[in-house]
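Issue: copy button drops trailing tokens. Both records pasted manually instead:
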Amino acid sequence: MRERLADRIRASLADWPPEEAEAFARGLRRFTEEGPFGSPDAHSSPDARLSPDARPSPDARPGR
């Protein structure tokens, strides 16, 4: 599935100017790594992305 997606993206970008295709590829990589599909930073908890006011208190977490 991944190869088919990559092939489709390559085919779509073939008609783009190289600079624009490279910029799109960088943006797509960043989106997949940092966006909703990315994993949390290895040095932080999933809550680290939340502002301090939005983080749940330790007492509010299940099992505590």
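Record 2 (pasted manually too):
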Amino acid sequence: MKNALIIVSAFCLLVACHPHSASYHYNKGQDLMLQRQYKPAAKELSKAIAKNVKGNQAHLDRAYCYYPLKAYDKATADLAYLKEQGETSFQYYSLKSLVELDQKQYQAAINTLSEGLRAYPDNHFLWGTYGYTQIENNNLEEGYKALQHCLKLDSTYYIAYNSLGWYHYQKKDYIKAEEMVKKSLEIDPTNSYAYRNLGFILKATGDAAGACRAWKRAEYLGFSTDYDNEVKDMLGANCGS
């Protein structure tokens, strides 16, 4: 019996590692996704999906890859498929809202997050995204309240502090804005988006040199790769070569 189990296990391992197997493509896609090689990751996940493996998770992973590639139509198609399949994970609500937010579909994102929060009322990530989306939709006080609630759930959530910094920036309270963004950077000094925000805040206070340092740090940390060319544009317009 023991030998039989060893033979079966070895067979299963060979099948999973075979370069034409569905599991091989799925696992390779996940590895590439973790390396942030989103385009080849999406191709491998597509091969896995074509072989009908991993169901909803493969579609969710592929949509996640499409998001930083700005392939919004493809991400939305995967998310629509997931909705048809009854997907209700908080990852689904989070990703769907981010795709909508990136396209400035603020009300759609708010609706998605509201639905997600009904299912996951104690999820600090959803509250943080909800707060930021409300701020981007010019509902500043609603966003502020959501971010405060987010930090009650998790006082170390650095993204919420960064978003609070952006709230205070919109209110032209630059001292408080800088304080919140720097608090975010204390928790996660690799947060390129916080350096992006810090650049705008320091520029508004007249600290042009500080703003340039912040944007250069954002660029170094990969902002222009992960988001868009905004930081490069600000560097070019304000900081010379």
